[in-house]
């Protein structure tokens, strides 16, 4: 029985290792995205976004495979309840246990770094949108220069509309 579960755990370790590699590659893409956002490189942003979508599809496929292996381990070995990495440590040999713990920590760290980088990129995108909005407002007021005060001391409320084709 143990050699059967050990083989399944080895398969699971391989899939989790592949997932960790995909997460690392996704993190690298997020770093490239950040650089492209700072450089305002729309071509690079488009390319990176396509690569990110592929990595997400890869991650989803690996996630499904991992869930299949866990279900197989659970059914084959009559394990009750949830099967987590911590729970699998009970059935794994020493080498497998070390690899599982290492992969669990690596994925947790990668997840934290991905979240941090994503949040930075979101902030950069929001700043870019704010800049675009201010620029559009400034452009819309070109034909209607703002006067600090009119003759009664009130700030004028007039503004001119400017239409811009934002399609690229």
Highlighted features:
168 residues, mainly alpha, Methane Monooxygenase Hydroxylase, Chain G, domain 1, 4 helices
Please write out the topology:
Layout: H1 2-39, H2 42-76, H3 85-88, H4 94-140
Helix pairs in contact: 1-2, 1-4
Q: Can you walk through the features of this model?
A:
The chain is mainly alpha-helical. It has helices at residues 2-39, 42-76, 85-88, 94-140. The longest helix is centred in the last third of the chain and has 47 residues, at 94-140. The termini are far apart.
By CATH, the architecture is named Up-down Bundle
CA-based shape: elongated
Proportion of strand residues: under 5%
Tally of distinct domains: 1
Q: Supply the CATH class.
A: Mainly Alpha
> CA-to-CA gap between the ends?
62 Å
Radius of gyration: 26 Å
The residue-averaged pLDDT reads 85
Poorly predicted parts: none
- Give me the number of helical elements: 4
Give the topology string: H per helix, E per strand: HHHH
Q: Tell me the total number of β-strands.
A: 0
Helix content bin: over 70%
**The biggest beta sheet, please?**
none
Q: From the helix content, strand content and strand pairing, which structural class follows? A: mainly alpha
CATH fold node name: Methane Monooxygenase Hydroxylase, Chain G, domain 1
């Amino acid at each position: 029985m143990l050699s059967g579960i050990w083989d399944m755990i080895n398969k699971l370790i391989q899939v989790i290792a592949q997932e960790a590699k995909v997460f690392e590659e996704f993190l690298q893409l997020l770093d490239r995205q950040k650089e492209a956002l700072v450089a305002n490189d729309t071509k690079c942003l488009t390319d990176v976004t396509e690569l990110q979508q592929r990595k997400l599809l890869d991650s989803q496929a690996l996630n499904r495979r991992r869930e299949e292996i866990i279900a197989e381990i659970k059914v084959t070995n009559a394990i009750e309840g949830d099967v987590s990495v911590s729970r699998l440590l009970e059935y794994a040999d020493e080498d497998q246990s070390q690899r599982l713990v290492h992969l669990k920590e690596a994925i947790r760290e990668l997840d934290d770094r991905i979240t941090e980088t994503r949040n930075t990129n979101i902030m950069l995108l929001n700043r870019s949108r704010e800049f675009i909005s201010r620029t559009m407002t400034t452009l819309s007021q070109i034909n209607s220069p703002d006067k600090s005060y009119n003759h009664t001391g009130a700030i004028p409320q007039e503004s001119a509309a400017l239409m811009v084709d934002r399609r690229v």
